[in-house]
Amino acid sequence: MKPARRALAVLVSGGLLTVTAGVSAATDDMTRFERQTIAWHGCRTGDADETGARLDAAGARCGEVTVPLDYADTGGRTISVAVARRPATDSAHRIGTLVVNTGGPGPSREGVTLLAQGLPPDMPRSAPELAARYDLVGIDPRFFGRSTPLECGWPTGLYLRSAQLATPDRATFDRSVVTAKELASRCSAHRDLLPHASTRAMARDLDVVRAALGAPRISYLGWSFGSYLGAVYLQLFPGRADRVVLDSAASPDAAGPGLTRETAPADAAALTDWARWAAVHNGQYGLGDSVLGVLATIDHIGRSAARAPLRVGSHRVDASMVPGLLLTVSDSDEAYAEFSAQVRVLWDAARGAAVTPTPAQEWKLALYTSSEVLPDFGFSATIANQCADRAASRDPETYYRDIQAHLPTEPRYGPLARHLTPCAFWPAVPVEAPTRIGTGHAALLVGATGDPATPYPGQRAMHRALTGSRMVTLDRAFRHGVYLLSEPGAATHCVDETVLGYLLGGALPAADRICARG
C-alpha cells in the first residue's frame, strides 16, 4: 500500500475452490481473452501523469488487457485492466514473471517502479536482484487507476465521515447511518458493476493477464490487500502459481465490510509502543516522561475534544475524529517523530493554545471537510470490493450493539474499528460466496508482530490456512508492511535475505523464522 494511501487507510461459508456454476461453465469461453495480444506502449499519458513518467523511467511498457465484467457471462460486457511490464535485465538468468501488488486495494502498476528503482522519499528501497531476473508486472485491479473505473463521485469529506469517525454513542452512530446511506445511494447508478468488484474477480483478471503474457505460471509479491488477492489466486489457480510472497496478510476471514473489526487491540498496542518512544523523547515533545504519562495526555485530548471541538489552525477537531487522528502504521523514528509533533499540536489545542498543524496534519485535516472527489484514492471502488467480497448485515442496530458490547475492552479504537459501512445499505449483493482459503501450495508469509492494520493473530491464521507456507516475522515491530517498506537495518536484512532467498532460489525456509527488531 502506497504511503498516502496507507496513512489515509488507517485513518481508514464457502467451500474450497467454490465458484458458481455459471462461472465454472463459462471457462470454455475464455479462449479469446487468454489469447489476446497486448499492445504495449509508453506509460505516460500526459504532463501530469507522474506514475506513468516513473514507469517509463524504470524501463516499463504499459498496455491494456480485456477481461469479462462477469465471469459467469464471458460473452457479455467487457472491461479493461491496465498493466505495466518491465523485462528482466539479466535475460540469461531470467526466472520468470513476478506480479507485484502494492495493496490498497488500489493502483499497483507502480509496484514495477518500486522493485526496479524504489519510490523516494517514502519508499526509497528497491530490489535490483529481482528486477534483474524477473519480468516485473504491475496491474491496476479492475475499477482502480487506469483500469475501467468505478467512481460514485463521493466527496472526500463525506467518505471520511463514514470511514474515519468513531461512533461510541447513539448520536454519533445515528449520524454515521445517515452518511452511510447517502454514500450507498450515490453508487446506485453503478448497479451493473458493483457485484463484480470482488477479489475473486480480480484474481480471475490476474489469470487472464498471465495467459495474455504467455506465462505458464507466475510468481507473486503482494502487500496488505495484495496479500489477500495473492491468497485468493492461489486458491483458485494453484497450478498457475510459482513462488508466492504475501506481506502483512489479513486473516483469511477478514475480507469484506468487517475488515477492520478486529484491529482495535492492535491499534492500542501500537499506540503504547509509540508512547514508550515519546516518553524517552519527552524533552523534545513534552508529552509525558512515562508510558502512562503519555497515554494520560492522549486521554486528556479526547476528554477536551468531547467537551468542545479543538481549534487546530482553521479546523475543528471533535471527539469522533480523535481516534482516527491517533492511528500509527510505522514505528520508525521518523514516523514517530512526526506523530509526536502532531499529538503535541492536539495537546496544546486541548489546553486552549492557538496552534498551527504540521504540514502532514494540515493535509489530513483538510480532507475531513473537503468536497473534492479524489478518484486516485478509489474510495468507492474500495467499498465496492468489500461489499462484493462478503455480505453485510442490513440491520444498523447490529453494528451499534457490537460497538457497545466491546466498548469496555476497546475504549480508544473499538468504535472506529467496528464502524458501520455503506455495505449495510449497498444497492447490490455478492454474487458468490466468500473464498475459503485452504491450500497446500508453497508460499512465504512476511509479517510484524505489532502490525496495527492487519493484526498478527490474523496473519498467523492465514499461515495456518496456507498449509504449505512458511512465515518470517519481524518481532516486536509495530508497522504495516515489512519487506522493502521498513528502514534498512539488521532486522530488515534478516527479512530481505529470507524473501530474496526464496524468490531467487525457489526453496522455502526449512522452518518459520523470527527476526528481532533492531
Essential attributes:
21 helices, globular, two-stranded antiparallel ribbon, alpha/beta, 9-stranded mixed sheet, 518 residues
Strand order of the largest sheet: 1-2-4-3-5-6-9-10-11
Overall pLDDT level: 92
Major sheet characteristics: 9 strands, mixed
- Give the total of beta strands: 11
Runs with pLDDT <50, length 5+? Answer: 1-27
* Overall outline: globular
**Beta-strand share of residues:** 5-15%
User: Helix tally?
Assistant: 21
Radius of gyration: 22 Å
The first-to-last residue Cα distance is: 23 Å
Query: Which percent bin holds the helix content?
Result: 40-55%
The class by helix and strand makeup works out as alpha/beta
Give a written overview of the molecule:
The protein is an alpha/beta fold. Helices cover 41% and strands 13% of the residues. The strands form two sheets. Strands 1-2-4-3-5-6-9-10-11 form a nine-stranded mixed sheet, sandwiched between helices. Strands 7-8 form a two-stranded antiparallel sheet. It is globular.
